[in-house]
Records
---
Amino acid sequence: MLLPLLSLAAFASTSIAVKPIHSHNDYTRAVPLWTALNLSIMSVEADVWWQSSQLFVRAVLAFLLLVAHTSGEIDKTKTLNSLYLANILGIINGTISSPTPISVANPLQLLIDFKSDGPTTYQPVHDALQALRAGGHLTTYSNSKLTQGAVTVVGTGNTPLASVIAADPRDIFFDSDIRHLYSTKPGVGLEWGPEISPLASVDWSSVSSTAQMQELVRNAHDFGIRTRFWDTPSSVSTWNTFWAAGSDWVNADDLLAVSNAWGIFDSTVGPALKALEAEG
Ligand SMILES: *[C@@H]1O[C@H](CO)[C@@H](O)[C@H](O)[C@H]1NC(C)=O
Ligand SMILES: *[C@@H]1O[C@H](CO)[C@@H](O)[C@H](O)[C@H]1NC(C)=O
């Protein structure tokens, strides 16, 4: 595989140590979290709906955060807690065994896609994370300090930026729009950075060229923010183009295919890069 030197240089700027793969909408799989963890893919996504019309007491609020792609598909046995949070806590605390550990050294990025109204859904999501929070397992921003935890929670979809910013300590972060990092501010007197937005994304259809994609990746990295393009074609050549540009999280549904593609890319481009560095 021949890649231009420029691409190799860009690849060097990829800032994650784990496989640069994000498992998109993995609740559609029979065993959602596990398909990713079995392949050491450390970024997963859950779509959540808050059904406020039901009368449940606060103690079981987490069970109302139902995981589904559209509200018509809601299966009330599938909750954010049962599919994700309980398993994640168990893997961290050693009561559930996992092929891939989740730890500060090998953290999991959990994207929570707010499908229902943002401000209404924020507090139930915040509450559902309480066990992980109480265990000290969440990446947290407090007193101007960002502390890496075993799990970094990033809100996407309808996640309300104002609630994210207002939280102190902050442990739900915000998936920003990669196109607007230079042209907008997250709030008065604030700048974009990983303490608000460790991840910036955009729909692939609104990016016009590979060159623009590479520029967006560089822009995000200027802010210390990692990148993700979604709704991309599911092909090895597309994935390779993102990795060559240093894009951090390749968004994919076919995890085995993307994982195999990364293995090949990493074993060809990685050594080529080291050889280049050795030549000085
Ligand atoms: C994950 O791996 C475990 C053990 O390695 C296996 O029992 C389980 O079936 C796998 N699950 C999936 C969804 O691949
Ligand atoms: C460990 O995780 C399990 C599974 O989520 C949970 O039931 C248990 O309460 C946890 N224990 C501690 C000490 O966090």
---
Amino acid sequence: MMDTTKHRLTRRALISGGAAFSVLGFPVPFARFLPAGMQPVALAQENILPGKSGLSVLSDRPIAAETPPHLLDENVTSGEHMFVRNNGLTPAVTAEDVADWRLVIDGEVETTLDLSIDDLKNDFEEVKLQLQIECGGNGRKFMTPAARGNQWTFGAVSCANWTGVRLRDVLDRAGVKSTAVYTGHYGADIHLSGDPEKSPLSRGIPIEKAIEPHTIIAYAMNGGDIPLLNGYPLRLAAPGWPGSCSQKWLTRIEVRDREHDGAKMTGQSYRVPRYPVAPGTEVPDEDMEIIQSMPVKSLITAPQTGARVSAGDVFEVRGHAWAGDNEVAAMDVSIDFGATWTRAELSAPVNRYAWQHWRVELTLPEAGYYEVWARATDDAGRMQPATQPGWNPRGYLNNLQHRIAIFAL
Ligand SMILES: Nc1nc2c(c(=O)[nH]1)N[C@H]1C(S)=C(S)[C@@H](COP(=O)(O)O)O[C@H]1N2
Ligand SMILES: [Mo]
């Protein structure tokens, strides 16, 4: 029995660079026997999110943790505040694994590439881009009727400085065949069952998105290592599309002559109905289409919800806004439950796919309870709705307005 397992793990090791499931940085030799859904006891007492602070943990196996909006106030999201969405188990990644890490580019290419991280750094032009990545299920909690999945509120979004190489340049080196239409991505994380043959997540993107110059293979974040939970030492960043397109712990990109069919690519995963449906409708798989660009959205990052201000005094309200493949064209806020709106100042993105910052000065006329509502409009004229937009079975793309509570004293 050990022999079979060893064989399978060796095969996995070839694919994954040797990484295995870890608890607090320790490899777990018998991880394959730990029942799915059972949490390692060590994690019950310890901080289960090494390198993170202040995140709300929605699930611990696999890890799903979101950032409270006020901790996203930074213009560039820091590693400690970057949300985490795992579909499987975080791989252990040692210095040796990093030195031995391979990224294979194969499939519909003239030449299969088998690259180390140094090859990526030495042989391709380095790019630095600020890119927003949002989980397709961000906002799911506010879908009625409820949709199953992680009950994200507002904080499954980040915008960090990423350093890496364009996927396009790597694909050019491999020579993409005219038959190529889609990519399939593979990472070194481990299926909850521990089965090394199964992948927790393997999504892909149309070749047009793959060769878009902002789709990059990143080996650094905010000038340092990518946090382990966010894909160290190598990840894809396909900004503006569901976060699931940005494979963490990246080991292989297969160029395909058809849509990808990996884990969470098919059925109802990361798909919405092709036509509007009444809330609660069951939609057959063949009527679902793959989500591409994420919709326009914004966050109020200061003040924190529940803040107290003095009636009649000016206070600053600020946050960020983003719009998938689009740009945000306008940002408005309301203190009267949407009856009237005030235009906020809005910055241009530092590069395409970076979120934009907005700020406005407000005054509350008299003592009492208020809410600030924030509403972004994209450059195609699409505006965030006050309540859920089109309901869909898995609760994706909920870009309803962010609201905070404010008490005027
Ligand atoms: N290998 C791998 N990559 C992955 C995932 C995963 O489970 N495994 N989750 C995806 C999903 S659903 C999202 S939303 C983003 C989240 O990125 P973050 O955890 O770095 O914030 O990673 C994506 N990349
Ligand atoms: Mo996600």
